[in-house]
Amino acid sequence: xxxxxxxxxxxxxxxxxxxxxxxxxxxxxxxxxxxxxxxxxxxxxxxxxxxxxxxxxxxxxxxxxxxxxxxxxxxxxxxxxxxxxxxxxxxxxxxxxxxxxxxxxxxxxxxxxxxxxxxxxxxxxxxxxxxxxxxxxxxxxxxxxxxxxxxxxxxxxxxxxxxxxxxxxxxxxxxxxxxxxxxxxxxxxxxxxx
Length: 194
Prior knowledge:
This protein has 194 residues and is α+β, with helices and mostly antiparallel strands.
């Protein structure tokens, strides 16, 4: 997949040399305006990355190979040509998507009406803030990846590559003494160029 066409920008800074590496100036995008949409998710976001598992169709292919070719060299070729493997997201993550999708849809309708938006959004920055209701140490990176993938899957943003999601950040803290349930806020800032 190719990146979308590049948005208008100017260079900021100058070429630097640091530890023997020439670093070009940064691209600063020149939008006409910015709109920030705040989404809220209740509960702990499951890590998608830590719960991947692989599946394959080898049992079915073996049975078919035996039925069609018996124990012959053709059976081995059939197995080689027809066996497939794939990676599945965790059931916990997929269940979480099902649990929150109606709430995300409701929030997206609110913002679409307020700003006359059409989803998916195609050039955004995202800041996540995690209000954790317990004292368990949690990994922002895993949570961020789950959030970005969820936003793509539910059609809020078009993709999570740098051509569409050009800037990200996350922050958070322990609110065990204030909250009974974890909360995440997702600030999606849309750069408008027209």
